[in-house]
Amino acid sequence: MIGILIITHETLGAAHQSLARHFFPDAGFEHLRIIGVDSCEDHADIIGRAHTLLAELDSGHGVLILTDIFGATPCNAAMKLVEPGRSVILTGLNAPMLVKTLQHARDETRLEHLAQSARDAAVKGIMLFDQAL
């Protein structure tokens, strides 16, 4: 099982966790943790909390870290957590990314494969409609 750590601004991660419970009401989510970053939070504190959760989540197959906005504080803190083969970051968290990640994190053993599948789902989930159907 691959662990999932979501690091986002304020309560955005908690909202995604609530959405996950909507899609997967019977899932235990023991492999998912959330860090909501407050606007005045110290960078070192965020990294410290994340290191603790990474240790809890890594059952030997690594941890996929999902963040909301590339270049923002949650992402910048997460960048300090990347360890090849143990943790990777995927930015731009959206609902399709989350659903794909949760669908496959329990059975997938290759961290990079899960990250790529989640990224593909995120991109494919973005559609532009300029006319009513």
UniProtKB/TrEMBL annotation:
Coiled-coil stretches noted in the UniProt entry, renumbered to this chain: none
Domain PTS EIIA type-4 intervals: 1-126
InterPro entries: Bacterial_PTS_sugar_comp, PTS_EIIA_man-typ, PTS_EIIA_man-typ_sf
Origin: domain of life: Bacteria
Keyword Transferase: yes
Keywords: Transferase
PROSITE patterns linked to this entry: PTS_EIIA_TYPE_4 (PS51096)
Protein name as catalogued: PTS mannose transporter subunit IIA
Organism of derivation: Kingella pumchi
Phylogenetic placement of the source organism: Bacteria, Pseudomonadati, Pseudomonadota, Betaproteobacteria, Neisseriales
